[in-house]
């Protein structure tokens, strides 16, 4: 007696119940696996993008906005701060490294960040091709930017004012590509890095062209731009000598206790702690993650109930056939195996379909994130969590099968056969 073949026939005997069991179970598995992968990938990406940054200093405003704008580059900055004031903070003996950054332009949606040579070190970024910037108007591309636009060493392009992909006007001064970074799978991949002087010079010339009306052209040609000391001084104090934020690494954890409070209370700047602010962000997003997870568990319970009903109806509806098999020599264990095989066929099919659906769903969500935030996130596949989810599903299905095979254990062969006759 081939129990396996009989189980496959039973598997196809009630297609509607089988389909419902597989559908609900695969949906719950897809939700559980997908939300776990997304949550893990999201957290790892945020943690990786912190690099060695312990504190961010910027203009007064929302500390979370300051972190999102200066560390993750997915929000607008809170404003600018004077570079001279930031230099005073950089001389603090408790600070190991302080990297000033300035931004406000983009190239087709990808941000152009002016910084010092210490900025790539925060993310362990190394040059793949070319060299680092040495003069104004030279840029080094993140791996994603170079790949997306096919830019190579020596190519030039014009930046656009603002952080939005559309709506900003192009600057006249072209930028020259002198290097390309290795892929880091961090925020560096989607940035265009240049020197602070480039950002200041681009906006300096732009402000100058706006300030110089046609009637002042004669004076401009006669005296030259830099002979107008008053105007030059205005630019230096204004936009040209401002930065967007300062990325700080401390020498020891003790500095985290006093330095941020001192900055917030005694200066016009704001200090934010990225780890603390991102933990707050986790709490906000955690509500949605928990909600989807509990919905997945609810669907899992419903799917197990559906599987139980399917197997139980099969046992009850085919009680005469099962009793007849017993009379021809089949024992209870063989009948139980027949039900178990059918249950595991449903579970195995649902698990494969559920994992496949989760990967498809996560892929499209990550593509949407890439299009919206210009950020490529590596997919984190935790096989331990996948095994745990599979173990939970198997446990629930085993419980459903245990209730379904109860009539087999209590089967009265003579009564069933006589009643059917």
Class per helix and strand makeup:
alpha+beta
> Mean pLDDT across all residues, rounded?
81
Neighbour order of strands in the largest sheet: 3-4-9-6-8-7
Low-confidence stretches: 213-239
Number of distinct beta strands = 12
Main β sheet profile? 6 strands, mixed, barrel
How far apart are the termini?
A: 24 Å
Strand content: 15-25%
**Any idea what the radius of gyration is?**
32 Å
Order of helices and strands: HHEHEHEEEEHEEEHHHEEHEHHHHHH
Give the helix tally: 15
Shape, principal axes of CA atoms:
elongated
Q: What percent of the residues sit in helical stretches (DSSP H or I)? A: 55-70%
The total tally of domains equals 2
What report would you give on this structure?
- A hairpin with an 8-residue loop joins strand 7 (156-161) and strand 8.
- It contains 15 helices and 12 strands.
- It has 2 domains: 3-46 and 286-420, no CATH class; 55-272, no CATH class.
- The chain is α+β, with helices and mostly antiparallel strands.
- Residues 213-239 have low confidence and may be disordered.
- Helix 11 packs across helix 15.
- The radius of gyration is 32 Å and the shape is elongated.
- The strands form 2 sheets. It has a 6-stranded mixed beta barrel with strand order 3-4-9-6-8-7. It has a two-stranded antiparallel ribbon with strand order 2-10.
């Amino acid at each position: 007696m081939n129990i396996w073949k009989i189980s496959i026939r039973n598997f196809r005997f009630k297609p509607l119940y089988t389909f419902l069991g597989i559908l609900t179970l695969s949906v719950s598995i897809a939700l559980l696996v997908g939300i776990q992968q997304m949550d893990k990938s999201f957290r790892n990406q945020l943690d990786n993008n912190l690099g060695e940054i312990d504190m961010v200093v910027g203009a007064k405003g929302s500390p979370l906005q300051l972190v999102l704008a200066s560390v993750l580059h997915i929000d607008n900055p809170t404003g600018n701060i004077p570079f001279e004031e930031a230099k005073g903070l950089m001389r603090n003996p408790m600070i190991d490294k302080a990297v000033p950054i300035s931004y406000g332009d983009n190239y087709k949606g990808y941000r152009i960040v002016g910084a010092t040579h210490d900025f790539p070190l925060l993310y362990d970024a190394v040059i793949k091709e070319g060299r680092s910037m040495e003069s104004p108007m030279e840029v080094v591309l993140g791996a994603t930017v170079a790949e997306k636009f096919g830019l190579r060493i020596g190519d030039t392009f014009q930046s656009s004012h603002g952080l939005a992909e559309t709506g900003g006007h192009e600057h006249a001064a072209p930028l020259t590509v002198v290097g390309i970074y290795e892929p880091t799978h961090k925020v560096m991949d989607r940035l265009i890095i240049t020197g602070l002087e480039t950002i200041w010079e681009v906006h300096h010339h732009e402000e100058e062209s706006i300030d110089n009306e046609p009637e002042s052209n004669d004076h401009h040609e006669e005296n030259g731009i830099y002979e107008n000391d008053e105007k030059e001084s205005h630019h230096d104090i204004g936009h040209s000598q401002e930065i967007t934020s300062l990325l700080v690494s401390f020498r020891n954890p003790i500095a985290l206790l006093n330095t941020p409070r001192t900055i917030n209370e005694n200066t016009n700047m704001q200090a934010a702690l990225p780890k603390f602010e991102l933990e707050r962000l986790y709490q906000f997003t955690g509500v949605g993650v928990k909600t989807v997870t509990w919905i997945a568990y609810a669907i899992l319970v419903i799917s197990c109930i559906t599987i139980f009903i399917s197997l139980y109806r099969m046992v009850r509806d085919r009680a005469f056939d099962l009793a007849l098999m017993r009379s021809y020599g089949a024992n209870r264990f063989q009948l139980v195996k027949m039900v178990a095989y059918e249950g595991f066929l449903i579970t195995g099919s649902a698990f494969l379909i559920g994992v496949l659906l989760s990967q498809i769903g996560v892929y499209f969500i990550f593509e949407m994130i890439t299009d919206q935030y210009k950020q490529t996130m590596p997919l984190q596949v935790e096989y331990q969590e996948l095994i745990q989810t599979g173990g939970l599903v198997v446990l629930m299905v085993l419980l459903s099968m245990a209730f379904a095979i109860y009539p087999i254990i209590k089967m009265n062969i003579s009564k069933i056969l006589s009643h059917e006759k």
